[in-house]
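ok so i was messing around last nite and threw this chain in just to see what happens. nothing serious, just curious
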Amino acid sequence: MSTNRTTTWSTAKQGCKPQPEPCCEHDCTSGTRNRYFLNKHITPDVWQVEQDYQIGRRRLVNRAVHGWGVVYGYPVTMAAGAACSGAGDQALAGIKVGAGLAFDRMGRELVQTDQITVSLDDMLELPGSEGEDDSYLLRVHYAEQLLAPVSVKDSCSCERQQWDHVCETVRYSLQRVPRSACCDPHPCELDCSCAACCAEHGTRADSREDDDNGVRDGAARCLCDHLTELSPGAECSGLAEVSKRVRVDLHNGVALACLSLQQDECGKWHIAEVIDACGPRRLVKRNDLLFDLIRGCDLTRISEISWAEWHRSRERIAWEEFDSFFDTQRSEQGGCETDFVVRFTRPVRIDTLTADCFSMTFLIRQREGGWLIPMRAPIVRVIYGEISGEKEELAQHASLVVGWGWVCDALRGLETEFERPGVTVEMEIYGDFILDCNGQALDADARGRSPGPSGNGTPGGTFRSSFQLDAKPLRPDPDAAQPQNTVQGGNLS
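result:
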């Protein structure tokens, strides 16, 4: 009796005869390491295999896990240069480059342990653009320098020179680029098209009650498409010999800064200015840096509000205390200046810090049904404090100015809505409207009952502060004390 049995891949493989392994071919592209055994003959080639394997694995982890770019350091500043003497002799102005660490595209470590001064004569020139308003892109490159010369004799007793050590160092280059290339943001590398979810193919997504449209699978598929197109291998890039003992990788430099060059009175070129020492850089995000970014440490927040003692207070604020926040005279520039001041953890852009970034709303309780009717005070302008920046475009704090007519009528008039106890005041600051000195939106979200600092780790949001007022004391109407007109003897008196 025969029984039908499904043959799996594993059972089919067991029935195959083993293929003979080549005895002389060596084609292991994924990484070859030494295998040690007794009486193994150790030669320089053996140690070279060992070194290549260890270095190759380390560089693979660097480029695959950490990425490439500047890890930290490498500050670039101008170095002073002597004036032209007229005889042609001159100490050319250069730049100072501090200690730092970077990874290039190959995963090599670009390490500089001290600050050095680099002049134009020390830099390699790479071919670039040809424009009138061009800048020069400064890059750091991986380099190897031979050290410790030794004399050795070969089998023919011929003496030749070798080098005992290799110093892994760096060299710098300049490439002419358009000025716009210095400030262009790095493009987003995560790029994927819409992915089909598993539900379209009748698989496990059909049984998932919490994900009928397959959104989760589609999002994971986006990352999968991106990662599967990456290769663990690195582009082939040899080292070019730039001197007798130094070889440099000219193709995988890491950008550091944009510079400008000009000619002096002697007709010699020198570095005139460091245009931007951050914009051209690609950065490697270390784990502690990523954690700080998740916490929003790079964001600007509201550090202090002048009415902090009132913020979400369980007790009503005395009317006299609230009224004292408003000036008693009209400002020369118009409006009524107030003591409602907002401070920020770092300067913000004045052109984004406008009156519509703030609101002062009063919730008036109606007698019928207890409705809360919102009534908003007119904020007419903002006064900036601690102004800074080259063009005075930044401010560290702002105070509010409200309409003078509103103060005279609604706030200090004879009969106002504030004569009823329990009026709620809501102060709001719209973080999405305010940009800091780095162009990021203010992290303004309120945190519980705390008056500051604000923020939940993401740009934007609204800071909302509320408190209740005691009733405004009643003021007697001077006209109400006058006697009413009566008719006496046909005369009106």
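not much to say yet. The radius of gyration is 37 Å.
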